[in-house]
Design goal:
binds nicotinamide-adenine-dinucleotide, alpha/beta, single chain, 2 domains, six-stranded parallel sheet, elongated
Length: 293
């Protein structure tokens, strides 16, 4: 059993903290939302009045915050000045690589081991404890964090040094955003050419067009009964989240001079989709915009 401070108890952090309690860890919870803290207390966590208070006696600190600016602020103002000596710091938020490396370097300077450990798997995975963690940080920090992460996830991948967890996450999601648009365009063209969607699926899913966006998350209703297309594109993984990750990928690409024209195009199209009132829809719903609907 470890003493764990958990900061950021939203859609993802709430169920993740609950799984740590279930695994017999002593969890002290803080969020700016009093309702989120009360929900965590309902799951067996202890309540802290501030992030600084939460981390004071913790052996492990886990953060699950919206974006880089929140992570920088919470670590600079609350975690690093107040965490107990020897505490292991784990940031699970999805943020820009620069912020992850910046905060990682500050933590190291202050004498802490820290990893960035963004996740995939969504709220369903967070609740079921089946998330995938992509981890950046040193070998020793990874080894210490692994048993904690295993209580919240199933696949724990050490992607390399500080920031590489975030790098793995945004590269994967850039592939996903681009491939979803490619698959959507394929189905749209098929429709215009008089080719049945199921027939295209039967061919492409066993041919070189095969990919996850097609076989697990098909954007047209029918071929994959579990995909959001069968429930009016109820998320799932929201278009707003996809746009966030595509913009992080573009920010990273610009910073290192990588040419990612398809990623840039995907970011533009998802921006259009999100800003035409579809932020909360599943990202595969972009097929309807591409189809002129
Ligand atoms: P959320 O908005 O539901 O939760 C974020 C929580 O952080 C909120 O409860 C908010 O009150 C709290 N918070 C913000 N600033 C704070 C501060 N200074 N101190 C304490 N608490 C603070 O977001 P979420 O869906 O839980 O996502 C969290 C992170 O996980 C994001 O980086 C997101 O990109 C990533 N993510 C989300 C999903 C998903 O499906 N929701 C999937 C993978 C990754």
């Amino acid at each position: 059993m470890a003493k764990i401070a958990f900061i950021g108890l939203g859609n993802m952090g709430g169920p993740m903290a609950a799984n740590l309690v279930k695994a017999q860890h002593q969890v002290t919870a803080f969020d700016l939302s009093a309702a989120a803290v009360e929900a965590a207390v309902g799951h067996g966590a202890r309540k802290a009045g501030s992030a600084a208070e939460a981390v004071k006696e913790a052996e492990v600190v886990v953060t699950m915050l919206p974006a880089g600016k929140h992570v920088r602020e919470v670590y600079e103002k609350d975690v690093l000045p107040n965490a107990a000596k020897g505490a292991l710091l784990i940031d699970c938020s999805t943020i820009d690589v620069d912020s992850a490396r910046h905060v990682g370097a500050l933590a190291e300077k202050a004498g802490f081991e820290m990893i960035d450990a963004p996740v995939s798997g969504g709220v369903g995975g967070a609740t079921a404890g089946t998330l995938t963690f992509m981890v950046g940080g040193g070998d020793q920090a990874f080894a210490k964090a692994k048993p904690i992460l295993e209580k919240m996830g199933r696949n724990i991948v050490h992607a390399g040094a500080s920031g590489n967890g975030q790098a793995a996450k945004i590269c994967n999601n850039m592939i996903l955003g681009v491939s979803m648009i490619a698959v959507s365009e394929g189905f749209m063209l098929a429709k215009r050419l008089g080719l049945d969607a199921q027939k295209l699926f039967d061919v492409a899913s066993t041919s070189s067009g095969q990919c996850w966006s097609l076989t697990n998350y098909c954007p047209v209703p029918g071929p994959v009964p579990t995909s959001p297309a069968n429930r009016d594109y109820q998320a799932g993984f929201t278009a707003a989240m996809m746009l966030k990750d595509l913009l992080l990928a573009q920010q990273a690409a610009n910073a290192v001079g990588a040419s990612t024209p398809m990623g840039a195009g995907a970011a533009q199209l998802f921006n259009l989709f999100v800003n035409s009132g579809h932020a909360a829809k599943d990202f595969s719903g972009i097929i309807r915009m591409l189809d002129g609907k």
